[in-house]
Design brief:
Elements (H helix, E strand, L loop, with lengths): L2 E4 L6 E4 L3 E6 L7 E6 L8 E3 L2 E6 L2 E6 L10 H21 L2 H10 L6 H9 L26 E3 L3 E6 L14 E13 L7 E10 L8 E6 L2 H8 L1 E13 L5 E4 L3 E4 L1
Antiparallel strand pairs: 1-2, 3-4, 4-7, 5-6, 6-7, 8-9, 9-12, 10-11, 10-13, 13-14, 13-15
């Protein structure tokens, strides 16, 4: 059983549990209060209850309490940061939706943070206040990916994946690859629509010859076609990830982008 109490006077979360407390950070004048627990006998917890929230990172339950009241600053700089935060969170969510990209970020992220936070950290500086830009990335730095022929159509995306072994050295176990893409649609025809929408796409390619090009084609589903029809411009993000025969991620390309 976990019992949490919050006092504005002592500004400390009290935690009574059959578990070990790794870290407790005091809340000073409204700053976030946090406790990190491990070995929780009732299993991992997640979700929110009032001003309390819980999440699990690498098997540890992180519980936090926020102030009961908070007045967000309204100066231009603060508004810009919050807008970029929302854009970057949207982009990061779309990246981690693709399981292969999630696996990549889980391999390279720092200990104690989630893959989502690693993606967010890598992208925040590149986001604009109204949408992602062509500088946002799907992956950590990887081998170069230069695509000469690429298009975003109303119902699909197409791209000619270049000869990959000209860009990197691949082991004998790297026999498959995964093509992953985001399309960020922006400039809606109807001003009532959201300023941008992102769709996530992927395709698994088995037994690929890395000495040959590959004509990639990924169809949009019905919902994605409806989204595409509402916007006048888009940014396409593409990367490729090599895999073993059993699906293990080996290495990734950099992110190719094109504004349409």
């Amino acid at each position: 059983m976990v019992i949490l109490g919050y006092s504005q006077k002592c500004t400390v979360i009290r935690i009574i549990a059959l578990t070990k407390i790794d870290t407790v950070i005091n809340n000073i004048k409204g700053v976030l209060t946090m406790a990190i627990l491990s070995g929780n006998v009732i299993g991992n917890m997640k979700g929110k209850l009032g001003n309390l929230s819980a999440r699990t990172v690498e098997g540890r339950t992180i519980m936090a309490a926020r102030p009961y009241s908070f007045n967000a600053r309204q100066d231009p700089a603060s508004l810009e940061v919050r807008a970029k935060f929302a854009v970057t969170a949207n982009f990061s969510k779309s990246v981690i939706f693709l399981s292969t990209l999630s696996a990549i970020w889980n391999k390279v992220k720092s200990s104690g943070i989630s893959a989502f936070n690693a993606i967010f950290k890598a992208n925040f500086a590149f986001s604009a206040i109204d949408k992602p830009t062509e500088h946002n990335v799907l992956t950590p730095e990887g081998f170069p990916l230069l695509i000469a022929v690429v298009a975003v159509a109303a119902d699909k995306i197409t791209a000619t994946i270049p000869i990959l072994n000209a860009a990197s050295v691949f082991g004998a176990d790297e026999v498959n690859f995964s093509a992953n893409a985001l399309v960020c649609y922006y400039d809606p025809a109807n001003v009532e629509d959201e300023p941008f929408k992102i769709i996530s796409l992927s395709k698994e390619v088995a037994a690929h010859n890395f000495a040959q090009t590959y004509d990639l084609e990924i169809d949009l589903n019905a919902t994605q076609k409806i989204i595409a029809a509402k916007y006048q411009h888009s940014i396409l993000y593409v990367c490729v990830v090599t895999k073993t025969a059993d699906g293990k991620v080996v290495q990734n390309s950099s992110t190719f982008t094109k504004i349409n």
